Amino acid sequence: MPMVTIDGRQIEVEPGTSIIQAADRLGVEIPRFCYHPDLRPEGNCRMCLVEVDGFARLAVACATPVADGMVVRSPHTSPQASQAVNGVLEFLLVNHPLDCPICDQAGECSLQDFYMHPDYGLHKSHVDPAEKVHKRKRIDLGPRIVLDAERCVMCSRCVRFSADVSGKAELQFIQRGNHVELMAFEDRALEDPYAGNLADVCPVGALTSRDFRFKRRVWHLEHTNSVCAGCSTGCNVRIDHFQNHIERVVPRRNPSVNSSWICDEGRLSWQAAQGGERLTQPASGGGYPPEIRWSEAVKAAHELLTDRGERPLAVLGSASATNETLLLLRRYAEQAHSEHWLDFRLAEEVQLVGEREDQLLRRRDKHPNTLGAVYLGLAGARGGLPAMLEAAQTGEIGALLLVYYPPLVGEESAGVAEGIARLLANVPRSVVLTTHRLPYLQGAALQLPVAAWSEEEGTYTNFAGTVQVVERAIIPPGMSRPATAVLADLVEHQVYRRPDADAERLFAELARTVPAYQGMDYAMLDSRTATTYPPEGRMHYGQEGFAGR
Amino acid sequence: MAKKASRVVDVRAAVDAASGPLQEAAGTLAGMEVTLRNMVRATVERKHVTIQYPEQRKPYSRRFRGVHVLTLRDDGRLKCTACYLCETVCPAQCITIEAMDVEDPTVEKAPSVYEIDLSRCIFCGFCVEACPEEALIMSREYDLSATSREPERLTYGISALTQRPEIAAYGAGFRPHMDYPLVESYLPSAVPGPDGRAKAKK
Ligand code: SF4
Ligand code: SF4
Ligand code: SF4
Ligand code: SF4
Ligand code: FES
């Protein structure tokens, strides 16, 4: 395999690797606009110029494959490359507006960061601001994206994303020279269900997200790594939040799951988790008992679930619950000798889990953890909700424990909602753990509020069996607590010993007891190791510029 | 270092020797020497250190850092572009801004909420220095008090920062570029807000 030396450091890479990829692996920062690891290289911006021994001229690092014995010098060490990059940057800024204070990209803008770089930035402008060529601003490109043509650096990342990745080909350049401008055909609204990614691929503030527009300056945001709970694909995301409020969700690069993309539904799914009417305190019979404490609520739940005579306890989990929640749920069912009455299937989750909705990311099963529930043995011989309903109608079921999370993408199907409502109506002794107050849960004898996605830590197993960690970004509202904590309390009432409710310990138990997770280590799970692009701590993405705030 | 030879002092004996009614009276008088001297100076010589505030006031520097003022454009709209730089730099974290889209296509954004919690402000003036637009300056207004801790009694919103009569009465204070003349129309006119001195609604 070719061995290449960059800035005096050596690395061996596969044939066909470009210089910039080798440099990224070494941690040598080469400035770039048009290069993106998940888009085809185009080499149009010339920001990545490097000096290569034996080459007559500077080479573009993004489109030059390495050869064995190549010696490369980046702008950090080569004065020639540094001068060239400085010149390229000056050209890019000739007509760039002085917008930084009002530009949403400021703080995570490549242009800002490169300009401020002491090795190749900080040139003196030769252009009088009054002579700049002006272009159109604030162009409405539909519900997701706003275009500011003046800020564009013509890197064509967005054009390539639209043409090659989402396949919609809705963006193109018009005019020439100074007047080149990005445009959607007739300024039509983008129809791309992945349009939100355009704001992420754009290295500057030309394409910005309408949803996040003006909400926060990015340096105020805190970041938490997570995994989207919108469908069974399990795209890696980063939750950006401020003062316990989610401001936006952006993709995290994970080549084996979602590359650098997420769908728009997933991007906005936090609004479903945070919006609607959240259940913020235990509710019995549809109303709020005044001033109930958690200890009393758990005791009441325990009495409801145990005082059922000889008839069994039915337990219905959720494919949107974390593996850790499901593990404790299974333990509860086992302790109640109801392991044969344990299920999670409300609809066709198991049949749909791998089925694609489109060619890029979305899948038809809108639950993040269907396979996790299957691995835990929750899909037993029972036959899911319809069979439970049948048994309930004949009076076979003594009590019911239901863990329910409304889907974050789309609505719950009418059939499922009605099925749950009828089930609750037929089993008078029922306890529901839920995030939201929903009309079809009002028949429950007792509802306990639990944390929604982004409010608890745990793992999901996606459609392909990849186990990924979701971390806690914000604190759940009101009295709600993570479902693991509530279930641990319930198990404590059964066996007089409280099991661990900590995600890491629970996962260690999963790794010991569930064959599919054999030998896995929580600290090594995928979502931890997936990177943002460019990798964490590098320029213009995910850096903690004003961490003091 | 050489250590000083220690001396043993019998504290109790020294105290006993120095106390007694006479000594105490003398000590009290000695302690009041400064007070008495100033009393004579004020009543006989009529020289005062203090002034009769609030009837009398002292002149303050033209770069005094008092209550903030949001400056205006020619057409009366705020100059502020809602860039959040003042909020970012504020060490007391007492500025709250929310930005909004506006009709005018030449303006990217404007604040829909601009609040300074003056009960937390330390009047450092960083916010004014951070502002790229001279949209926020300080006035020379300094007597800022509230008679209760009612929620946000001292949190001034857009209308309080632009419309209180005090702003015109006290005049402009610190700006980052004191050498440039202040454009008159920047300063809000002395029109009282709907409820006089009251702060803006949220
Ligand atoms: S795109 Fe970057 S450089 Fe241009 S105005 Fe926005 S933040 Fe500033
Ligand atoms: S809009 Fe952004 S991504 Fe598209 S060409 Fe311009 S700078 Fe590149
Ligand atoms: S004067 Fe200082 S403390 Fe007061 S608002 Fe401005 S920056 Fe904050
Ligand atoms: S720094 Fe100036 S322009 Fe920016 S938000 Fe503050 S007052 Fe407005
Ligand atoms: S990144 Fe290499 S030419 Fe643009």
Q: What's this entry about, in short?
A:
The complex is a heterodimer of chains A (549) and B (202). Chain A is of the alpha/beta class and 549 residues long.
How would you describe this structure to a colleague?
The complex is a heterodimer of chains A (549) and B (202). Chain A folds into three domains: 3-101, Ubiquitin-like (UB roll) (Roll); 133-214, Alpha-Beta Plaits, CATH 3.30.70; 277-518, Rossmann fold. Chain A is of the alpha/beta class. Chain A has helices at 19-26, 79-93, 110-115, 157-165, 196-201, 264-267, 269-274, 294-306, 323-335, 349-352, 370-375, 384-393, 414-426, 483-495, 503-513, 526-529, and strands at 3-6, 9-12, 49-52, 59-60, 71-73, 139-140, 145-147, 171-174, 181-184, 207-209, 222-227, 236-242, 245-251, 283-284, 313-316, 342-343, 399-404, 430-434, 446-449, 458-461, 467-470. The longest helix of chain A is centred in the N-terminal third of the chain and has 15 residues, at 79-93. In chain A, the strands form six sheets. Chain A has a six-stranded mixed sheet with strand order 14-19-18-17-15-16. In chain A, α9 runs parallel beside α14 (483-495), α9 (323-335) packs across α15 (503-513) and α12 runs parallel beside α13 (414-426). Chain A is 26% helix and 15% strand. By secondary structure, chain B is α+β, with helices and mostly antiparallel strands. Chain B has seven helices and five strands. Chain B has a three-stranded antiparallel sheet. A two-stranded antiparallel sheet of chain B has the order 1-4. The longest helix of chain B has 11 residues, at 21-31. At the A-B interface, loops of A face α4 of B. The structure holds iron/sulfur cluster (4 copies) and FE2/S2 (inorganic) cluster (FES). Residues 96, 99-100, 103, 105-106, 109, 111-112, 151, 204-205 of chain A line the site of one iron/sulfur cluster.
